[in-house]
Design goal:
With 184 residues, the protein is α+β, with helices and mostly antiparallel strands. The chain has two domains: 31 residues, no CATH class; 127 residues, 2-Layer Sandwich (Beta-Lactamase). It is 45% helix and 14% strand. Strands 2-1-4-3 form a four-stranded antiparallel sheet. β1 and β2 form a beta hairpin. The radius of gyration is 18 Å and the shape is globular.
C-alpha cells in the first residue's frame, strides 16, 4: 500500500474510533441531524440546516467573566472564544500571561467545539490504549487536557466554545467554566 492510502485508512479508523468512543453510532447521528431544532419542524429535504452561533456580545460577556475569575484566582490567562464553526470570535491575553498559552487557549476552544465536549473528557479517552489514543495529532493539533469547554445558549444548543490557558489545568478549567456560567 502506498503512504496516501495508509493515511486515508488511518483517518477513517480514527473517525470510527471517535464515533464508537462517543457512543454515537452512525444511525444515531443521522437521527440527531433530522431531529427538530428549537422545537420546530425538521428541515425540509434539501433545505439549509438552522445554525445557532455565539454573538459578539455573548463572546465578550464570556471573556469578561473568564478574566474576572482569573483575577479572583490571582493568575494571568489567555482566553479564547470560538464560534459554532470553530473560528476565533473573541480573545483576551491578560497582562503577563504566557505567550505560549495563546495557541493553547485557541486550540482548547477549537477542540471543545470540534467534538462538543470538554477537552479534559477527550483527554481521558486519548490515553495510551484508549479508543482515541493520539487524536491530539489530528485536525492540525488538538489539546486534550482541561481548559476547553463548549458554550451553550439558553436552549442548550452549542453556539461555540471557550479555551483558557496560563495556569494549572484545574485553574484553566475553572476560568473556562466561568465563561460558560456567564451565558446561562
Amino acid at each position: 500500500m502506498n503512504r496516501r492510502r495508509i493515511s486515508m485508512l488511518g483517518g477513517g479508523v480514527l473517525f470510527l474510533s471517535l464515533a464508537i468512543a462517543l457512543g454515537l453510532g452512525f444511525s444515531a447521528n443521522s437521527k440527531a441531524a433530522d431531529a427538530p431544532q428549537g422545537g420546530g419542524a425538521p428541515p425540509q429535504k434539501g433545505a439549509a440546516l438552522p445554525v445557532k452561533d455565539i454573538s459578539l456580545d455573548q463572546a465578550q460577556k464570556a471573556v469578561a467573566a473568564a478574566v474576572k475569575k482569573s483575577q479572583e484566582l490571582h493568575i494571568n490567562e489567555d482566553i479564547a472564544i470560538v464560534d459554532a464553526g470553530g473560528n476565533l470570535k473573541a480573545f483576551a491575553r491578560m497582562d503577563n500571561a504566557w505567550l505560549g498559552s495563546i495557541d493553547i487557549a485557541i486550540k482548547k476552544a477549537r477542540t471543545a467545539r470540534y467534538f462538543d465536549m470538554p477537552t479534559g473528557e477527550i483527554g481521558k479517552l486519548s490515553q495510551p490504549g484508549g479508543p482515541l489514543y493520539q487524536i491530539e495529532v489530528s485536525n492540525g493539533g488538538l489539546i486534550t487536557f482541561p481548559g476547553g469547554v463548549p458554550l451553550r445558549d439558553s436552549t442548550d444548543a452549542i453556539i461555540g466554545a471557550v479555551g483558557a490557558s496560563g495556569s494549572t489545568v484545574d485553574n484553566d478549567h475553572a476560568v473556562a467554566q466561568a465563561a460558560v456560567d456567564a451565558l446561562k
